[in-house]
Structure formats: structure tokens, C-alpha cells
């Protein structure tokens, strides 16, 4: 049978579909699922295939520079300079191979990344709910949908409870549509109105549902629309675009200079053909065509390193942005804290009188009095003990702590749920900050509600005392608040409980039952801060990055934890969601500058905080996990979703996912981002200074009517042998020790003024050394001069690649082997040079004369000069900046 989304599944009763798809109430067996997987293929949208090697080669051949080079080779053959032509062709081919290897490597790392972010689904297999990769779903599978998950395939709903799905990816409609499994629709019903269906790639924003998979992979509706998902564009990061545009500018500059060199040589009546060849090869060498590819590799390798540490980059530009982050807005629960809740204090009406909560241990001795509170906590609860993992909890840790509490009081959670079956649920949401269930207690329905104290007290009219229920008084409320504040200032999360008996269970799923309740009591639970977070926050502080806590929890609890973690400093302001609601955009702008803690915040307010921070010029990273966090995650410069507790919706909206939900992982990722950014700068500086030295050498010689110090093949060889390897090695340079000790770099400062100055001055140093070597050799003959110039420029570049590792620290402050890749690549490049100069037949190909010991000594001495000058330059800059910093701060160190 052809299971396609185009079939009228929405027009058939659910039972008929189950029969048709041969699925029982147990779901599919593993064997049947495997058979179907073979028959229907994996549940994935077909990606545009990565380019084949031939296609890549073809793209290389279409590159104008390669065409010019091949033209130059042909010209050489025509002029019977077969050797030179052969060398050019050889170099072009090796260059093409290297580029293809680079591109393949970059593609492979991106593919590996994509695999890491593929989704999972909960399906019923052999009668059990199993969490499987969404790609393994087959038609006939029964799957479960819940608030926050992405629909993994096209599904005919079998059951739904307040289910709402946002189908913008399919229909363009941003408002979530309500679903109803029980409807049978007309065959002609349009896609957007099929309320009994859920379609692949859409997002569940509310409620729950169960359904049967009717189409997978390319047979789904989205598969029909998106015949192919183009994965190539992901390479086009702003950085790559910037490098490409800089490349274009340099191409124009290079071509102008080459034309100038040609014109001057022509004016001096230099032999035309060698002049043309030199001009062409110079043009080729000045164009940093390898730069975007090298940058992509540096980025991709950085992304792999981040993934190993638990930070999965979903959008490549995030790596660059991360390095520039100035504020990290973090959730509290689970990110700054362990999300391991334990109830440590309890209070009921009798304690309210005394104004003090009771430690759990002491309450245990008074078992009976706390029964109502314990029962409400266990019944108004969706967590359960993990049957496969005794002692651990499945579900929300806040609720888990309540089950553990009931167990401590000798109440078995399972027995309680059996004795008092659930009839209705009004789920928790971060706006109401409450949750309610209706359970049958002794044959009668009873509402149990739990939630944040300031949200629960207003819906309570009575209080439960040892003598029974009575109206709640202002003194009671005052006293309850005092107890709650006491718990909160001990950094405890406070939950309040209430109940009421009712006559009938509401029929409408969305009915509100939270009014006229009877207050039962409070619990306070500890959620210890993660041990390593305090140090990570200090690292951020040193790095000029502000940490801001945004939490749904109570103000006092939030501040207590913020103080413990050093997020809150004297003078910082604290705002609650209610206070934020009163603010204008302008007030927001002022508030965000000084606020380090936001409490009782709703996701909408999170969005406004991000927007205000961005308006004040900050680069904002923001964490989130819930469905409603998606807009804030999208708006942030770097949206960070939680891997463990995050919903698919939040992950989908994010730029980065942290697999362990840990704040420290974000800081590690920022550090890696800064390292990547710096390494790309090192590569740029190294390659461009080298190119400038080549062009200056030739330009100056031509200007004064000297023969070319370097031949076309020399220039090409330098670009291939002595530039590529050290450039790649600089791309993986370990981070500098002070990488998290300076302020974040402003975005768009990759080509900062200092870098441009360094490129030009360092290019001049190398050109000067090369010209001196040339003139010394020229006293014998031209091939000697060229050999001296060729070796000096190549070895200067190799030596000064080591200087590039820091712009401020001396070359001796870093070990020779610290960057092993650089050590090896310098050795290999030097060996390649020696092969060229020392082995006679090869030497002849490159038209070089042999060099004696004196000349070698001279070359070595001259090649070291640029590095020495750069080191002196560093020392001077270091001195000047220290002096000016002292003058600015008046000798004081501001924190
Ligand atoms: P964050 O993760 O952003 O730091 P949070 O997890 O503390 O915030 P929410 O989950 O929105 O924030 O919870 C806000 C408040 O709602 C809590 O302080 C608590 O009083 C109450 N609350 C939390 N979980 C539940 C729940 N399952 N049922 C009822 N009330 C809850």
C-alpha cells in the first residue's frame, strides 16, 4: 500500500485507519517496524546531496584565477618553456586537491553536526512507550505528542487533550490551530483545517495527543513541498561573506598593482613574456582565495570541539557571535542550579499560627497532621518513579521532590493514584504558575492545586486547620507570606497547596477550576547551585561579560541564589515581572543596564529584556527551554536551548544547544568562540602579510628597473608550500592564556585597524629582508639573487608564523611545541623548500642556482630579521598601551 499524505486520512474514522495500517493497541512489534522501515525508507527529508569530487573540481576549473593560471601554463608551452608550464600545472593541480580536501572536511564536519541535532520521538512499540530516533518511525507507528515537541511525521490523531499545533512551516499560519482527534472531516477539507491530523515539522504548542503515523519522510506533506532541503547555504556565514568581499577588494587592488608593474616593466622595455608571467602569478598570489575555505575549516573544527564539550552549534554564525557576547542571560533552575529538588521545610495551618515552617525531619514525627498537604502534592503531580531505575524520577524534579516527600511520609505514590484516580487536569503553565487536578476521593471529585504562593493565595478563600476549614484572614495571609519569605531567603523554592470539593467534573478541557480554594500549606525545596558555576561566572566577569539571572521563581529565592553565585553585586537592581509590566521601552533601556536578577518573569518579558539589552548595544545570549521561550531565543544574538529539559520548539528556535543544561558549558563555548575568532585573525594576518611582502618585493624591484626578484613559479610555490600549512596550523592554535581576560570584541571588528597596520608593517619587513637578500645575490648573477630572495621570503614567513600566535606576548612566552600542528607544518614546509633548493634537477626546474654555506647563513640571518622586528614592535606596543592604560585609570584597576 502506498502510504502518502495525499490520502484522505482525515476523512476516515480512526479505527478504520488502524485496521488499514495493521496496528494493534500494542503498537508495532520491533520486527514489523524493521520490515516497514525497509519498505518505506527512513523518516527524513532528502537533503541536497553534497557535491561530488568531480563537481568540486569543475567549480575549481571555473574559477577565473585558475583559468588565468592555465592560460599562463599554455603560454609557457607555446613559448617552449615547457618546464615552467609543467610546474604551473603541477602547482595548480596540487592546489585544487588541497582545496577539495579542505571543502570535503568542512562538509563532513557540518554533516556530523546535523546528525547530532536530529530529533527523537516517543512511539508505542511492543506495548511499551519507547523513545526512538524520529528517523526510525514508520507508517502504522503509534506516537505520543506533547507540549513543546515537534510532530515527527504525518499523523492521524487518535486522541487529543487541549492539543494546539503551530503549523506555520506548512501553512504559513502563525496562530496555533486547535486539534480534535474525534472529528471526521470532509474529504475536500483543506490542509489548514484538518483538525484531526498533525503534520510533520509542525510544533505542538499546547496539550497532548496520541496518533498513528500515516506518512513518513518524503511522503509527508512537508516532504512534498520541500523536495529538497538545501544544506549548502549553511556555509555562508557572515564571516565567510566578509572574507569573500575582502577577497574581491584585494583582487581589484592586486590587479591594479599588477597592471602597474606590467606598465612600469613595459616602460623600462623589460622582456615582455617573463614580465607578463610575473604579473599574472602576482595577481594570483595576492588573492586570498584560500581564506574563506580556511576560515570555514577553522570554524568547523571549533564547532566540533564545542560539541565535544556539550555545546552543539545549530547555526554556524553563532560561533563568531559567541566570541563577542557581552551579556549572558541565564535561567536559574537547572542551568545555574542542579535542578535536584529536595523538600526541606513544610508548613501547615498550625505552623502558620507560629509564623515558622517546620524542617521535614521534625514534621515526619507528626505524620497525620501533614497528610492533606502530602496527598495534594502527590496527586497534583505528573512525575513518577522510574521503574527501570529505582530511586530516580521521571518528570519535573519539582514534582519529583513531592513524590519523594510522600514516600518519606509512608504514602505510596502508586497506591494513592489508584485510590484517588485523576479525572481532570489543568496543566502548569508559566503564566498562571499553578497546576490543578481533579481526583476522585472517596467517590467525590476534589480539586487539588499547587503553585507559586503569590498566584495561589489570591484564589484561596478558606484555610484548612486542625478543626476543619474556615475563611482565610488577612493575618493568615500575612503569616503565610512571612513563612514563605523566610523559606525563600534560605534560597528555597516555595510551593503552596490548596484544595476544594466539587460536585461535578467540568466537561470542557479548558475549564477553570482554580477559584474558591482552601489553603492547605507550603513546602520549601532546596535546589543547590551547581558547584562549578561560581567560577564560570567569575570567568565571565573577568572577560567583560555580565551574567544576568532570569527566572520564574520568587524574587527572594532568586536574589538569595544570585548572591551565593556572585551574580548579584552591591548596587545591582532586581525587577519582578509585575514591575517590568509597568515599564516603557525607555524605562526598560535604563533598567537593563543595572539589573542582574529578574524574578517571576514570563517568557514575553524575557523577549522584552532581550530587545532592550540589544537596544543598549549589548550582544545578548539567552537561554530557554519552554515553548514560549522561542521568540526570546530567536531575538537574542545567540539563543541557547537546553538539551535535557528543552522542548523541540525551543531547540528549533535556538542557535546553540547545550547538552547538559549547564551554565559552565555556555562559558566554555564563549571561550571557544573567542579562540576561533582570534585564530581566524591570525590566519588572515599571516596570509595577507605574506601576500603584501610578495607584491612589494616585485613592485619595488620593477619600479627601479631591476629584474624580477621572484619568478612566477617561485610565487606560486610559496603560496602552496609555505603558506597553506602554517595557515591551517594557526587556525587550530590553542587559546591564549588571557583569552577570557579581555573585553569582548565588537562585532564587525575582524579587520580591525590594528590588524591592517600589522599586515602592512609586517609585509614591509619581509619585503625589505627579501630585497636585501636579492641584491646581495644579484652581485653574482640573477639566478643567485633570485635563489637568495626566494629562500629568504619563504623562511621569513615560516619563522614569523610563530610570531603570529600572539600580537602582544613575545614569541618566547610560548613553547615551541605548544601548537604541534604549527611545529610539524613549519618543518614540512622547510623540508619542501630544501628539496627544491638542494636537489639539482628540481633546482633547475625552478631556475635557481646552488647556494653555499655563507649564502645560507645570510638567508637565515635575513629571514630572522622580520620576526625580530615584529617582536620589537610588540614590545613597544605593549609598553605604550600599558602606559596609556595607566594614565586612563590613574593607576587604579577598575573592576
Ligand atoms: P527558570 O527555570 O527560568 O529559572 P523556574 O523553573 O523557577 O524558572 P517556572 O518553572 O516558570 O520557573 O516556575 C515558576 C514558579 O511556578 C515556581 O517558583 C513555582 O512556585 C511554580 N511552579 C513550578 N513548577 C510547578 C509545578 N509543576 N506545578 C505548580 N507550580 C509550579
From TrEMBL:
Enzyme kind, highest EC tier: translocase
Its taxonomic path starts at: Bacteria, Bacillati, Bacillota, Clostridia, Lachnospirales
Q: Which family does it belong to?
A: Belongs to the cation transport ATPase (P-type) (TC 3.A.3) family. Type IIA subfamily.
SUPFAM superfamilies given for it?
Calcium ATPase, transduction domain A, Calcium ATPase, transmembrane domain M, HAD-like, Metal cation-transporting ATPase, ATP-binding domain N
Q: Record's PROSITE patterns?
A: ATPASE_E1_E2
Q: What reaction gets catalysed by this protein?
A: Ca(2+)(in) + ATP + H2O = Ca(2+)(out) + ADP + phosphate + H(+)
Annotated membrane-spanning segments are 61-79, 249-268, 280-303, 683-704, 710-734, 755-776, 782-800, 821-839, 859-880
* Enzyme Commission numbers on file: 7.2.2.10
Q: Which UniProt keywords apply?
A: ATP-binding, Calcium, Calcium transport, Cell membrane, Ion transport, Membrane, Metal-binding, Nucleotide-binding, Translocase, Transmembrane, Transmembrane helix, Transport
Gene Ontology annotations of biological process type: intracellular potassium ion homeostasis; intracellular sodium ion homeostasis; potassium ion import across plasma membrane; proton transmembrane transport; sodium ion export across plasma membrane
User: Could you give a GO molecular-function term held by this entry?
Assistant: P-type calcium transporter activity
The record describes its membrane topology as: Multi-pass membrane protein
Task: Spell out the InterPro entries in the cross-references.
Answer: ATPase_P-typ_cation-transptr_C, ATPase_P-typ_cation-transptr_N, ATPase_P-typ_cyto_dom_N, ATPase_P-typ_P_site, ATPase_P-typ_TM_dom_sf, ATPase_P-typ_transduc_dom_A_sf, ATPase_P-type_domA, Cation_transp_ATPase_P-type
Cation-transporting P-type ATPase N-terminal domain boundaries? 8-81
Biological source species: Anaerocolumna aminovalerica
Pfam families (alphabetical): Cation_ATPase (PF13246), Cation_ATPase_C (PF00689), Cation_ATPase_N (PF00690), E1-E2_ATPase (PF00122), Hydrolase_3 (PF08282)
Could you tell me which PANTHER family the record lists for this protein? CATION TRANSPORTING ATPASE, SODIUM/POTASSIUM-TRANSPORTING ATPASE SUBUNIT ALPHA
Name of the protein? P-type Ca(2+) transporter
Q: Does the keyword Transport apply?
A: yes
Organism superkingdom: Bacteria
Localization, per the record, is: Cell membrane
Q: Name one GO cellular component term.
A: plasma membrane
Main localization is membrane
- Xref: NCBIfam families: ATPase-IIB_Ca, ATPase_P-type
